[in-house]
Amino acid sequence: MSHYFTNDKNLVSNTKELVYKYSSFSFVFLSDNGVFSKKYIDYGSKLLLETYLSVEDKPLKVLDVGCGYGFIGAVISVVNNSYVDMIDINKRAVHLAKRNTKKLKGFTGNIFESDAYENVKDKYDVVITNPPIRVGKAKVLEILLESFSHMNDDGTLYFVIRKDQGALSIAKIIKENKCEIDVINKEKGYFIYKVKKIKF
Q1: H/E stretch holding 50
Q2: pLDDT tens-digit profile of 68-92?
Q3: Fold for domain 43-197?
Q4: Distance from C-alpha of 34 to C-alpha of 127, rounded to nearest angstrom
């Protein structure tokens, strides 16, 4: 069975247009077989994005981890005039994200393939992610906890996870790793977390 975090060369392409509106902005995203939430914009991603935009309104340097077809990173870049790099292990997702941002007025940033932070060289003000839960808890924790190695001083991690996917246990582990973690929104079982590293 093919998953959105794998690369299946034999998967037939079947692109679909997904429309999203935020404030006065309108976006059209191409989706396809073999990527996360191919038929509709994922509710958790939408809640994460809109919560982020409600608390961060200035231009920042952002890294979108597990970007899929580019929904979160593209909107943040355009709406907040931010520089956003987007990464995904899925080659088709990276290709779609590039297509979706190529003609998008106001987008600035780079999109490239990376297994977690393997190919990430820069430092960011914000790391944002809807982590790939199905890949397993160990990989999810790697994405969350290693994010701080790729942030500027006082950087912030934002992520979404459902309660029934282990939100509370993952939050506990993050807190035990010398982090200040807060629930800044929750809706329909989804928890939006804001995390900062505690400095000593």
Answers
A1: helix 43-55
A2: 999 999 999 999 999 999 999 999 9
A3: Rossmann fold (3.40.50)
A4: 24
